[in-house]
Amino acid sequence: MKVLGIETSCDETGVAVYDTDAGLRAHALYSQIALHAEYGGVVPELASRDHVRKLLPLIRQTLAEAGLGIEDLDGVAYTAGPGLVGALLVGAGVARALAWALEVPAIGVHHMEGHLLAPLLEDGPAGRPQPPFVALLVSGGHTQLIHVEAIGRYRLLGETLDDAAGEAFDKTAKLMGLPYPGGPQLAMLAERGRPQAFRFSRPMTDRPGLDFSFSGLKTQVLLAWRDSDQSDRTRADVARGFEDAVVDTLAIKCGRALDASGCDTLVVAGGVGANKRLRARLQAMAEQRGGRVAFPRPAFCTDNGAMIAFAGALRLRAGQHDDASVRVTPRWDMASLEPVVSG
């Protein structure tokens, strides 16, 4: 089954073709970072307009790279939420129109389920991880620990009570004067920082539970930066101290989640999942515990069409599809999803 995937939840236009027999055939991504940089963040109306401008050319490009004609598609998957409502409607409208014209099924995919399944998209050295496992979804909008009993059967173990980890990266970078998007800039800067030059708290690790909170950490960094000499050396050291605090906090909570669920496999997805220090720390933790951790390749940590094509293909192959109406769900609880039962 050849499925076209469309991702337009925020400021990246992603398109991919996934073949349930041959795997990922092709994918393309257009980022709007340059468009939004002058505003210091995503402007929803501009994001929607740019999706309109780029989506059809990307679909043509991706089909050509896959060696397929549009008539070869067996289904269409698109991000239906959560996300920016205008941006979501662009992808949903194009997807539903294509599916109607081709007389093939279409399905709206939960954006975070796409991220959660991204580590299963391609075979790793140890093969694809199979449920049950614990998933850490860590991005600009979400920080969640989820027990994955089966595809489509998810139980929330813990989540952030305020800022997500990626959001904290971006806001901390901004208060230190780093350019947009700040999170990746801060991570690069932290590579030059001295460990222990600044030590910040590991929020909510001194009490039981699996929830997160990063707003207080952000405030600690603000105070430390404000009272420092604000030199380049200090900026790198503060960035390192902040990154170490976030990585330690995530690792401690992941260990607790594995213990609580009785699982030995951890899956990590979302934009912050590309962070090198986080990957190294979780890999070391998994080896020490005699378990396993799986990541998507860095290109599939951030928003992309491949994860939507894959998640949609799993559901379409199981016989699930939506009706012909164009609907999106900007706020959508992943626990409400139907389980996937393979035929």
TrEMBL record:
Species of the source: Marilutibacter maris
GO cellular component: cytoplasm
Residues that bind Fe cation: H111, H115, D303
Cofactor(s) listed: Fe(2+)
Function, in words: Required for the formation of a threonylcarbamoyl group on adenosine at position 37 (t(6)A37) in tRNAs that read codons beginning with adenine. Is involved in the transfer of the threonylcarbamoyl moiety of threonylcarbamoyl-AMP (TC-AMP) to the N6 group of A37, together with TsaE and TsaB. TsaD likely plays a direct catalytic role in this reaction.
Protein name listed in UniProt: tRNA N6-adenosine threonylcarbamoyltransferase
Domain Gcp-like: 25-310
Name of the gene this protein is made from: tsaD
GO molecular function: iron ion binding; tRNA N(6)-L-threonylcarbamoyladenine synthase activity
Free-text cofactor note: Binds 1 Fe(2+) ion per subunit.
Pfam families (UniProt xref): TsaD (PF00814)
Documented EC number(s): 2.3.1.234
Catalysed conversion reaction: L-threonylcarbamoyladenylate + adenosine(37) in tRNA = N(6)-L-threonylcarbamoyladenosine(37) in tRNA + AMP + H(+)
UniProt cross-references to Gene3D superfamilies, sorted A to Z: 3.30.420.40
Biological processes per GO annotation: tRNA threonylcarbamoyladenosine modification
Compartments in which it is found: Cytoplasm
